[in-house]
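Module 6 notes. Inverse folding takes a fixed backbone as the condition and produces residue identities as the prediction. Think of it as a translation problem where the source language is geometry and the target language is the twenty amino acids. Below is one complete input and output pair. Work through it position by position during the lab.
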């Protein structure tokens, strides 16, 4: 039986104890710790801990402990509880200057559950509308599904200010200017602004500017004036800069992202698919895939869906095919086959870390051949984009089979679903065949296979 309290206690002990932890957060699969002293981490024991699927960033202040979906939520909550109960050497709000990509991820990752939920509802509503079913319910579903996306700039502004040490509500207030309908009456650079212009990129920039202004004011005003003047100056200056500069600039960048993505697929479809599908697993392994969230969100705001996510999802399918080949080839390695059986359900639903750290990466070659499978699936989907059949996802977060309810495209959901399914099957097949043919040294047996620790996720089936 899974014991999240014991796991949390062991993770804390092996990362230098509560006093070494400066910040705690998590994404869908990883516990993310900011450390005061990276050298205090016992990496070997941490990797061998039951339930730990992998460790990223060892030796740096930003440590990621891969635990898998579901498990990471409860373990993080338990880590936070134990930290709150333990004395700390320094305030844990102090950050250890993590990289820019990590900070972007920390802004957007907490928004993913709402993006998933609203995206699935949007997909269901689209199916009901196209079929002409439940006409009395579809307007309500549309309102529920669209409300979050209409105000996502506010949430991004709130999270940005919080991440960079400002007052979150001030970041949200400045970002709210972007989605306020009244901005249509404002003229900047000779043209009227549009509500929502600049989207999440504008909100990110506006809240970051507001945080810098707020910190500048607080360092120069006495307490009696600070409580009145600082919020006013922050909102005024950052708000004017947003209206007369940031919205225009961010809107131009967002337009360029949308134009670039469409050009990439309609001009170099299969090539783009091969590159994106083939290189995504290394990004996931390094934790850099979260940096793509603002791009996905910008495309969803502009076009109603992101054309990049279905291509990137092929990487996970290639890994599933590769893992099945390992399962077939190493039939006498009971521990490894148990790990594969446990990790495959998550892999089919697009959660790749259990298979990455439990199977393909320790073996080496199967990781490369899994990337080949992902490239083949991406090329399949990209080929149809070259023909004018684009496949997109109305939300980000899930992939694999879990992406089906979120699929749509320029020709509607039915062709998008069929093309995506074809891409998955291609990635499965090529990943399986490539791993079977090239994923093992000649004469590989159980005795010559590199040892793979049994890191089966506790509670997996």
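Target side of the pair, the amino acids:
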């Amino acid at each position: 039986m899974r014991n999240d309290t014991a796991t949390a206690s062991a993770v804390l002990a092996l990362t230098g104890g509560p006093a070494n932890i400066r910040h705690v957060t998590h994404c869908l699969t990883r516990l993310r710790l900011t450390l005061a002293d990276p050298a205090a981490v016992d990496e070997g024991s941490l990797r061998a801990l039951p339930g730990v699927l992998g460790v990223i960033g060892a030796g740096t202040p930003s440590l990621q402990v891969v635990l898998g979906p579901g498990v990471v939520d409860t373990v993080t909550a338990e880590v936070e509880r134990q930290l709150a109960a333990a004395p700390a050497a320094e305030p844990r709000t102090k950050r250890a200057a993590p990289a820019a990509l990590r900070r972007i991820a920390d802004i957007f990752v907490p928004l993913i559950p709402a993006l998933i939920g609203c995206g699935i509802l949007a997909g269901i509503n689209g199916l009901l509308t196209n079929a002409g079913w439940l006409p009395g319910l579809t307007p309500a579903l549309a309102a529920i599904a669209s409300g979050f996306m209409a105000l996502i700039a506010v949430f991004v502004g709130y999270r940005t200010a919080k991440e960079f040490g400002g007052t979150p509500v001030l970041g949200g207030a400045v970002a709210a200017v972007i989605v306020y309908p009244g901005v249509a009456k404002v003229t900047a650079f000779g043209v009227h602004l549009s509500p929502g212009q600049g989207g999440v990129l504008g909100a990110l920039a506006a809240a970051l500017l507001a945080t810098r202004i707020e910190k500048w004011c607080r360092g120069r005003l006495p307490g009696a004036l600070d409580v009145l003047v600082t919020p006013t100056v922050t909102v005024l200056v950052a708000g004017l800069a947003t209206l007369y500069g940031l919205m225009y600039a961010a809107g131009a960048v967002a337009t360029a992202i949308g134009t670039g993505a469409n050009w990439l697929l309609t001009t170099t479809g299969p090539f783009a698919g091969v590159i994106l599908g083939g290189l995504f697993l290394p990004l996931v392994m390094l934790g850099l895939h979260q940096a793509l969230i603002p791009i996905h969100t910008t495309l969803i705001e502009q076009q109603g869906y992101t054309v990049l996510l279905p291509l990137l999802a092929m990487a996970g399918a290639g890994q599933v095919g590769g893992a099945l080949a390992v399962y077939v080839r190493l039939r006498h390695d009971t521990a490894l086959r148990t790990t594969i059986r446990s990790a495959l359900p998550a892999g089919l639903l697009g959660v790749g870390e259990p298979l990455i750290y439990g199977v393909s990466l320790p073996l080496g070659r199967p990781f490369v051949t899994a990337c080949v499978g992902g490239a083949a699936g991406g090329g399949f989907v990209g080929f149809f984009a070259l023909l004018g059949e684009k496949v997109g996802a109305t939300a980000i977060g899930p992939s694999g089979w879990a992406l089906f309810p979120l699929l749509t495209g320029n020709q509607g959901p039915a062709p998008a679903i069929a093309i995506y399914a074809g891409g998955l099957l291609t990635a499965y097949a090529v990943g399986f065949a490539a791993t079977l043919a090239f994923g093992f040294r000649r004469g590989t047996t159980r005795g010559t296979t590199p040892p793979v620790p049994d890191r089966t996720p506790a509670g997996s089936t």
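Reference fact for the lab report: The longest helix spans residues 223-286.
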